Amino acid sequence: TPSAVAKATGLHERWVREWMYQQCSCQVLQRHADVGPEASFGITESMYTVLKDQENPHYSCGLLSGFPFIMERVVKLPQCFSTGEGFSYDDGGVNVATAIERQHVKDFKHFLVQKVLPKVKGGSLVELLRSGAKVKVAEIGCGAGGALVALKKHFPNIELHGFETSQHALQRSRFNLTAAGLLESVQLHDVMLHPDALAENGPYDFVLCFDVLHDAPYPNKLMSSVRKVIANNGCWLVVDIATCDEKPVDMVHKGGKASMYFSMSLCLCMSSGLSAPGGLGLGTLGFTKKVAKSLSVKAGWSKMTKFEVPVLPTNSFFVFYP
């Protein structure tokens, strides 16, 4: 009931009551039998799974939880339209970083090692990572460290490096690695302080980027930088947002899904890609197969393959070979 929720949370009952009415009208809550003079509500198991259970593979509310903070950027959009300049992820504060972190919990815990990596190099990559050989791995744009934790737990013998520019994300990464007891066994690099860290610690047998390229101001430079540090028999896995093969405009007929992505792009992804002088500003749906191929050829990569993972339908998976 509204009064029970208000008492448990210390919030004002009238506001809670109106909010619960709104949530019920959106079918997030279900109305139950009245308790005395009060309406009573509950959340279904399926809705709880989608909105609350971060460990569940079907959890989908991570990024949505950051919308209130992302929407603060809307008032700044006229400035962006006038100047052509965007805002970095750190400009959104720590709440944006934690929202992205929550969104990817299930991806790294349930799918990265179990479903994605076995598709790389016909499964031989997993064999290499599991071997006793000294294998050097880098994640570029490691964010809050979720993939770092998953990789080190499953493949404890690898030498693992994480590279990040966001100070909020680095803070979360240190916290999560410490909580997992892995801070001393993973090498974190603040690229803003040490811009040459990637080159200084290579070459790498395997490099990972998870939802990074479309956000990067200079994905072309990143393509070249990774090409220079990849081992002769190594590979680079780029996980990005699933889009069309040719041009982002080809996605406009996708309706609500495309509308959400283009909205996110204006407030986050394209904004990040234009947050540095001369940034390419690919946008959420901008890392198409055509763009990936063009950038990789110019950077000197000899081969690109692409695959899909059914349990991760919002992503596409590219593998680049030296």
Topology summary:
Blueprint: H1 2-9, H2 13-25, E1 29-35, E2 38-43, H3 45-51, H4 67-70, H5 77-83, H6 94-116, H7 124-130, E3 136-140, H8 146-154, E4 159-164, H9 167-179, E5 186-190, H10 197-201, E6 204-210, H11 219-229, E7 230-241, H12 256-273, H13 289-299, E8 303-307, E9 315-321
Parallel strand pairs: 3-4, 3-6, 4-5, 6-7
Antiparallel strand pairs: 1-2, 7-9, 8-9
Describe it for me?
- About 40% of the residues lie in helices and about 20% in strands.
- By secondary structure, it is α/β, with parallel strands linked by helices.
- Helix 1 crosses helix 2 (about 15-25) and helix 11 (about 220-230) crosses helix 13.
- The longest helix is centred in the N-terminal third of the chain and has 23 residues, at about 95-115.
- The model has no long low-confidence stretch (mean pLDDT about 90).
- The radius of gyration is 21 Å and the shape is globular.
- The relative contact order is 0.10.
- It is built from 13 helices and nine strands.
- The strands form two sheets. It has a seven-stranded mixed beta sheet with strand order 5-4-3-6-7-9-8, sandwiched between helices.
